[in-house]
User: Which sequence fits this backbone?
């Protein structure tokens, strides 16, 4: 009698007999991939682990204890997998409110944004487009974001009219991507008319929820010009400040480069077409220093000169918010920035070939002509 009661109690604890859960080799690999994948959600990983443990023949109670979940949870996902396979582990899409804006309205909003102008305005705002289309401003914003439309923004461009544009692009990009042996490639330019500015009122410091603030009124204390040569291979910069910006100062800077670069290396300079770079005095200096070779960028193509990236860095980090009460203080700050930059330089890597640049420009010109 005692044995019968024990058997009955064991049957009650075990519950109803469960269908055997067997995995094919493909299902097993898919479940393991879900567990390993970093992008899988924690809920999906747990469901996959439940199925993998159940497939080993482990009882639901033991699986629940092993994984730290409820027995009912194990039973639910075991049953879902048996019924629907791997798809049963994913949540079914939830029902939401029906769309209030159909595809035709979305398409009309896009066409109106691209092809029309609002009355008495140069471009659409969310409010004016919402009024014209009879939808909410937030709906207009969502449509514009989905299709990458920003009517409030305008970028500038300038196409080079250089008759040797293609040849110069190939020359400059070629020397970036395949620099000559036993040579140094330096990007050279001048950042002229850097102003030593003192603010008319003290700056207000950064505070929680409050940005740093400065007055737009300033006092000028003179200007300086930074001549800079960026070593593409290392990211180091040779720099020197001069009060004037003439061929005489440019030659002095070339002498500075000549002293800084080992004598056994050729020097290839990438620079723009500024008149200072082509005077007779500069040409005579180049004849006396044959290891220097010039590579000129096309007109209106400063984006090809990598030293412009360094100038942008200098402006953002040092000059834009700087306060200088003399040109001497300004030049001291610039030299300090150069020294700090050269302590931990990073190479500049050019990745786009000349052919890719020219193809992109061709597509742009084709779009421009069609527009």
Assistant:
């Amino acid at each position: 009698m005692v044995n019968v009661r024990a058997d009955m109690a064991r049957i009650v604890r075990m519950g109803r007999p469960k269908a055997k859960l067997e995995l094919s080799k493909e299902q097993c690999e898919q479940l393991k991939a879900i567990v390993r994948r970093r992008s899988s959600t924690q809920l999906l990983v747990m469901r996959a682990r439940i199925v993998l443990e159940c497939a080993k023949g482990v009882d639901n109670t033991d699986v629940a204890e092993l994984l730290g979940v409820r027995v009912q949870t194990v039973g639910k996902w075991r049953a879902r997998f048996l019924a629907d396979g791997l798809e049963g582990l994913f949540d079914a899409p939830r029902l939401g409110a029906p769309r209030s804006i159909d595809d035709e309205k979305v398409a009309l909003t896009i066409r109106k944004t691209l092809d029309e102008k609002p009355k008495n305005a140069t471009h659409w705002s969310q409010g004016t487009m919402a009024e014209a289309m009879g939808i909410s401003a937030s709906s207009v914003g969502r449509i514009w974001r989905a299709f990458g439309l920003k009517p409030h923004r305008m970028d500038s461009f300038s196409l080079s009219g250089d008759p040797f544009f293609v040849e110069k692009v190939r020359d400059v990009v070629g020397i970036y991507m395949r620099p000559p042996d036993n040579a140094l490639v330096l990007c050279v330019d001048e950042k002229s008319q850097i102003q030593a500015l003192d603010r008319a009122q003290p700056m207000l410091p950064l505070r929680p929820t409050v940005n740093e603030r400065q007055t737009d009124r300033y006092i000028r204390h003179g200007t300086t010009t930074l001549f800079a040569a960026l070593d593409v291979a290392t990211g180091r910069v040779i720099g020197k400040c001069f009060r004037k910006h003439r061929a005489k100062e440019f030659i002095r800077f070339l002498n500075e480069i000549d002293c800084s670069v080992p004598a056994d290396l050729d020097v290839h300079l990438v620079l723009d077409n500024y008149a200072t770079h082509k005077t007779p005095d500069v040409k005579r200096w180049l004849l006396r220093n044959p290891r220097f070779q010039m590579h000129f960028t096309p007109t209106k193509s400063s984006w090809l000169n990598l030293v412009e990236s360094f100038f942008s860095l200098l402006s953002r980090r040092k000059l834009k918010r700087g306060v200088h009460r003399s040109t001497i203080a300004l030049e001291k700050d610039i030299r300090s920035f150069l020294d700090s930059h050269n302590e931990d330089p990073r190479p500049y890597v050019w990745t786009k070939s000349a052919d890719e640049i020219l193809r992109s420009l061709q597509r742009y010109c084709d779009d421009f002509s069609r527009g």
